[in-house]
């Protein structure tokens, strides 16, 4: 669960430090005080999009830190370990956003991509906003809701995997069948092209070797002349380097008789003289090896021309001709054996389809059973939320195989009757926005109970209700707080009085700068806040008495 939240320089928040406990925590305050800013900050910490507008005016960066106790969350611990982010039952998430809009994310002190942060956040917190009912109007969201209630999430993931495998095989079959129709013309072309490449018989590294030999033969006359000149300068002429070095060496040896200080110079010159003589000998041997062979030069020129012409024909580099031949050979083999491959693919497609249909039908049976249970349970919740006589039905339409999809063979639709005697209609056709909000809340509270996510946040989902209905909503949320950690932003005093913990958010202005302040309230301070929420220009003793009664009645229940 969420244990700690630190926010600095975020929106109109200067600095906030909050500690959270188990159960139901309510956040209240005047409209515009900044209650939803806290949730926005937490959302940022859990991977939502970062923008420079999030940084408090005049600050260089905004920072949000959230601490979670994950000791009782095996799925989260497995994810952290898999990503090498585990830290002994703790998870500390940090998000920093600069005034330029750039952001960095950290988990347990290590930098992570925002996508990973989002994956982790989905395992830790589930946020139900006041407009969450809008997502329930989408067919996919309705199907996902039923699957979550039925415990089919893992099954649907496997079903999607099987569906994609089945369809991939069908695509391979269609591609091969199309190629089969053009088989003969393609076979003829491939055989011709492969024969050309095989006739060329290009070897790995051959081009570089041929080019080097060609370069040497094409410049043989120049190489011969240069080697002769170099040898003469080294050895043959009277003023050749070897002769001059020999004379210098004789002078050094004479000097050495009188001064041993030139011994090192003598040794260096002796070594240089030996190397100069060896160089002259090597030049002589090199000249003897030089071959002025016009016929061989012509062969090399023709070989290079053949290679470059074929490479140009296939619009590739000469070095790629070997790989091209291998690809042609592989395609030729595939086409020559296309019939056998088509037969094999037909068998694979039949097996993949059968595996998909088997799992899809199992999922369909579970959906049908869960749909009835979900309808009954939500209907019961609707009665308690001020919709007496209303009911919800979960319609499960079975599709034929031709309409199969990644999620299975069913089309799911939520149907609602808001009043007794009225036929159930699609959720999107419900006339009253308030009714839709309450139906959404009835579904959210029910389905959240079975979810594996430890922290649930409800952001003003009780908008538009009051009185007895608001109290029933609060009791539902409090009951849920016995199973999960619940954070609830509310304007309803009946809901606020039911919280295990109560925070009040307020806005303060000092020296022209507006900031958000938050305080954990208990005792008389809490009574004062609930009294404020009960309304009236002036808070009277009677209002405070009513507030105290609401809170005390909660403590007794």
Q: Determine the number of helices (DSSP H or I, runs of at least 4 residues).
A: 18
Our estimate of the beta-strand percent is 15-25%
N-C termini distance: 25 Å
How would a crystallographer describe the biggest sheet?
A: 6 strands, antiparallel
Instruction: Evaluate the radius of gyration.
Output: 42 Å
- Roughly what percent helix? 55-70%
Spatial sequence of strands, sheet with the most strands:
2-1-4-5-6-7
- Helix/strand-derived class? alpha/beta
User: In the CATH hierarchy, what is the architecture of the domain at 1-130 and 452-461 and 482-490 and 498-520 at level 2?
Assistant: 3-Layer(aba) Sandwich
CATH homologous superfamily designation of the domain at 1-130 and 452-461 and 482-490 and 498-520 = P-loop containing nucleotide triphosphate hydrolases
CATH fold call of the domain at 1-130 and 452-461 and 482-490 and 498-520 = Rossmann fold
Poorly predicted segments: none
Give the overall shape.
Answer: elongated
What top-tier CATH class of the domain at 1-130 and 452-461 and 482-490 and 498-520 fits best?
Answer: Alpha Beta
Query: Would you report the number of β strands?
Result: 15
